[in-house]
From TrEMBL, chains A, B:
InterPro entries given in the database record: GHMP_kinase_C_dom, GHMP_kinase_C_sf, GHMP_kinase_N_dom, GHMP_knse_ATP-bd_CS, Homoserine_kinase, Ribosomal_Su5_D2-typ_SF, Ribsml_uS5_D2-typ_fold_subgr
Described function: Catalyzes the ATP-dependent phosphorylation of L-homoserine to L-homoserine phosphate.
Name listed for the protein in its UniProt record: Homoserine kinase
Pathway(s) served: Amino-acid biosynthesis; L-threonine biosynthesis; L-threonine from L-aspartate: step 4/5
GO CC terms of this entry: cytoplasm
Sites where the protein binds ATP: 91-101
Domain GHMP kinase N-terminal stretches: 62-150
Locations listed in the record: Cytoplasm
Domain of life: Bacteria
Entry EC number(s): 2.7.1.39
Keyword field contains Acyltransferase: no
Major localization listed first in the record, in broad terms: cytoplasm
């Protein structure tokens, strides 16, 4: 029976100024799914590694298998049977689109096994169903960049309108301080009402960031990445957020901010060495505060998921 | 003594979804300034036509001459003397950047007469001073596109960060219903607080519009041009706004909305004939309501001000 192994990337949602509408993928970290035909109908999960037992093995409840079930139903192939091994290679609850990476890897794997009946864009809604199972609402700002690669704009949810943006030639330094920030709580903290004048600042910056991506203007990308609405609240849950930002900017970061709902933070840099310097320095700082952390350095991802075996 | 005649274009600020950050220029209407050296220091205004006597002849109070004074002071040439004739070729208080067109024409004229010591971008702040005189705050969303031509993003006011965007190959149908909507009142009506979820919809659309301009994707431009925050309030002051929109969209408009703070409305179209059909039909409708109107059809302006004599 045919077996396939797929990698799907971690993602940074919001991208500082683009709350709920922007996201991008990174080359590391990411999750891996091994999928094989079983010869009998139905989707099973035989193994999950790297999750410390936190994820459900029940195929109806796990976001990876549930999404694959939706997918098979959609293409009218519920006669097909596959087994899934999920290898978590990134922390859960880190704000790096952990569940999205797993779900997207699973969907990409089944679509490959079925000889690609759907495009990547067509698979995004199935991955959003997985998000709904994982966090209560079918956000697209992690699954869309994980599936499509690069930088993605979710212009609208109703109707769903997702547009791939140019991918900048930048490196991304990520630090995950190992403190617990559940996505639901992080969302509930955010004010429901905002000042129109602050919203104007925000959409000026969103427009500036998109312009910077199209013009490949790294300075413009950097000076557009400010968040006057959400970051002031979310940063409260992140240890020494403003100190970490100061460190990153002093070391030459293009920009710095919260990844998704946190607690992970990220910096864009022009080169790999600067990204490494930033993760090293911030990790040392967190260690001094007795906070464990994980760090990742990679280029902004261009291609989305890929077959690795 | 050398004499120059300059045209500067009318402009559409906000562009539906981009309140206070986006604007574009049109080829018609626009204002004209005739400027000549006088041989003695100081700026004078000898003639204003087309304003029905509404604009000040006092050189310190007229936005055109006051901006030219600021300009000459900035380049340390207060020894220079010029006289200005202003020919208003568009209605005042129409929401089409009437004062901006005049001010920009004056600044462009003096810069030409002085052999271009400043770039167009460098002159924008002087035009903003004129706006401050005209309406109490130095907005840039009319003066910047009038000066630079095409589509313009004002990413930020502090510091001022203006970026020229790609100009779409579109026509613009403009209808000015002759009802009075002072800019100050139109601004005061707008709610100071908005829902974050509505703001998210808005900046998704702003990002979509900017993306559409860069990708020259007219459908994306059209579906991004929705305003859930400001239009619902401002449209109250505009007679039969939603009926006019319905007419424009039925005739094939790409999009329809309020120009600046109104009462002028505009539609983007793919061709000139559709734009003409729209202005004709809307004008007929307004005439039936006993509301006088003026209409304009032209391409989106590419070049900004120009010497015409």
């Amino acid at each position: 029976m045919r077996t396939i192994k797929v990698f799907a990337p971690a993602t940074v949602a919001n991208v500082v100024c683009g709350f709920d509408v922007l996201g991008f993928a990174v080359n590391a970290p990411g999750d891996e799914v091994v999928m094989r035909f079983t010869g009998k109908p139905g989707v099973t999960i035989s193994k999950i590694t790297g999750d410390n037992g936190r994820l459900p093995m029940n195929a109806d409840k796990n976001t990876v298998s549930a999404s694959v079930q939706h997918y098979l139903k959609h293409i009218n192939r519920t006669d097909v049977g596959v087994d899934i091994e999920l290898h978590k290679k990134m922390p859960i609850g880190s704000g790096l689109g952990s569940s999205s990476a797993s779900t997207v890897a699973g969907l990409f794997a089944i679509n490959e096994l079925m000889d690609r009946p759907l495009t990547a864009m067509e698979m995004v809604p199935f991955a959003m169903k997985g998000e709904e199972l994982a966090c209560g609402f079918g956000h697209a700002d992690n699954v869309a960049p994980a599936m499509l690669g690069g930088f993605v704009l979710i212009r609208s949810y109703e109707p769903l309108d997702i547009i791939k943006l140019p991918t900048p030639n930048l490196y991304c330094a990520i630090v995950f301080p190992d403190v617990d920030v559940p996505t639901r709580d992080a969302r509930q903290m955010i004010r429901k009402n905002v000042l129109l004048k602050d919203a104007v600042v925000q959409w000026g910056n969103v427009a500036g960031l998109v312009t910077g991506l199209f013009m490949n203007d790294i300075d413009l990308i950097g000076r557009s990445m400010h968040d006057v609405l959400v970051e002031p609240t979310r940063s409260i849950l992140i240890p020494d957020f403003y100190k970490m930002r100061e460190m990153a900017m002093e070391l030459g970061a293009v920009s710095f901010g919260i990844s998704g709902s946190g607690p992970s933070v990220f910096a864009f840099t022009r080169d790999e060495q600067t990204a490494t310097n930033i993760t090293t320095k911030i990790q040392q700082h967190l260690t001094g505060l007795h906070i464990a952390s994980q760090t990742y350095v990679s280029a902004v991802n261009q291609e989305g998921p890929k077959v690795i075996g």
